[in-house]
Amino acid sequence: MTIPDANGRLLAEEAAGDNAPALSVSELSGALKRSVEDTFSHVRVRGEISGYKRVASGHSYLTLKDDRAALDGVIWKGTPLAFRPEDGAEVIATGRLTTYPGRSRYQIVIERMELAGQGALMALLDQRRRALAAEGLFDRDRKRPLPFLPRTIGVVTSPTGAVIRDILHRLEDRCPSHVLVWPVAVQGEGAAAQVAAAVRGFARMASPPDLIIVARGGGSIEDLWAFNEEVVVRAVAESPIPTISAVGHETDTTLCDFAADVRAPTPTAAAEMAVPVKADLADGIQQLWLRAGRCARRYRDYGAERLATVARRLPPPERLLAPQRQRLDEAGERLPRALSGRLAEARRELADAAGALRPALLEARLARGRERLAGLRLRPGLVTARIEADRHRLGQTWRLIEQLNPERVLSRGYAWVEDRAGGVVTTGAAVRAAGSVTLVFAGADRVDVQVEGTAPRPARPARPAKGPDQPTLL
Known about the structure:
Layout: E1 2-4, E2 10-12, H1 25-39, E3 43-54, E4 60-65, E5 70-75, E6 90-100, E7 105-115, H2 117-134, E8 152-157, H3 162-174, E9 178-183, H4 191-203, E10 211-216, H5 230-238, E11 243-247, H6 255-259, E12 262-263, H7 267-274, H8 278-313, H9 317-356, H10 359-375, H11 380-404, H12 406-410, E13 416-418, H13 428-434, E14 436-441, E15 445-450
C-alpha cells in the first residue's frame, strides 16, 4: 500500500520481506493524521458529554461516549456554542476528525454543538432546576414585592426587537416612566453572560433603577436556552433590585422565571405589572378627594347641629349680660365720687406736710447737726497713740523673724547639707544614698563633700551622777 510521508511524497512499501523502507514514528503519525483528516473532514457524532473542562487558555476538552465506545473532543477558544456544555448532556457534535500524535489518540475538533433532541434538553433543564432549587434560589421567602410606582425601570433585552417597543408602548399607555435599556444579545454564544452582566450592572449604578425587567420574545427551547444558564439564574436571584422575568410566551418557562421575584407571561404583561394605570390613579385620587369633601361637610353639618342644640338650651344674651351691665352702671356712678374724695384727702395730707416744713424748724435742726459735727472732730493725740502702738507691734514681729532666720544659725558655726538637686538633707541615710553632698556655711559659702563610708559614732562620755536636788528659792 502507499502512505504519504511528511513531505508529501509517496513511499512504496513491499508486500512482504524485510527490504521495506522503515518510517519514523512522527512520519507515520503525520501520515495517519492527514489521511484521517482528509477522510473525515466533516462528521456529526452523537453521544453523552463526559469529563468536560475548560482550561486557562480558553480551550475546552471533553469526551463523547455511548454504551460501547468513547471519543475525545476539543473545542478551540472562540468557537460559538448555543449553550454551555455539561457532563451528562446528550449532544450532537459537528466537526472534523483528527489525531493527537502525542498520545496516539483520535479526537474530534468540534465546530458546532447542539443538544440531541427535545428530551435531552428537558432532562438537562430539569437536572439544573433541581440543583439550583436545592440551593434555595427559588424559595418563596426570597421573593420581594414590586414597587408600587417605580420612577425608573431598567429593561434587559435586545434593542432591535419588538419586545422593547411593546414595553415602551405599554408603559406610555398606562403610566409614563423613565426607562433605561441595557442592550444585550438574547440568544446565541455569549448571550447568557451579557444578560447576567446587565442585571449586575444595574445594581452597581450610582442611581440604580427601582425595578428591572428581563425580557425576550417567544421561541423554541434552544432559542430561550440562554435564560436557563446558571450565570443568569444566579444574577437574577442575587439582584438587590426587584426583578420581573418576561421571557417567551405564556407557555414558555425558563429557570430565570423561577429566580425572579415575579414572572410575567409576556413582555407586555411585565409592563402592566410594573406600573399602575395613570388614569385609574387619577380617578382614585378624585374619588378620595370627593370622599374627603363629603366627610368634611358631614363633620361641619354635625357640629352646626350640635351648636344649634346647645344654643337652644342657653338663655338669651340680653338676660346673661343684664347683671354685668347693671354693675357697670353702678361703678360708673361711684367713680366720680371716689375720685373727688381721694383728691380732698390728698390736699389735707399736703397741707399737714407743708405746716411741718417751717424755716425755723429746719434752722434749729441744722444747728443741732453742726454741734454734733464739732464734737466729733479728731484730736491729734488719738492718732499718734494708735501709730505708736502699731510701730511697737511691728518691731516685735521683726525681732521674731530675725531669730528664725537660718542665716543667723549659720553665723554661729553651723551648716546645712544639700543634695545634688539642691534639696536639704536631714538624715544620715539620705546622705549615704546621695553619695555626694554640699555643705552650705554662712555667707553662702558652699563646699562639695564626697561620702565614702560610715564612721562609727564615738561613744558619749558618761554623765556624772546627779547629786541631791539643790534647794531653790522658788
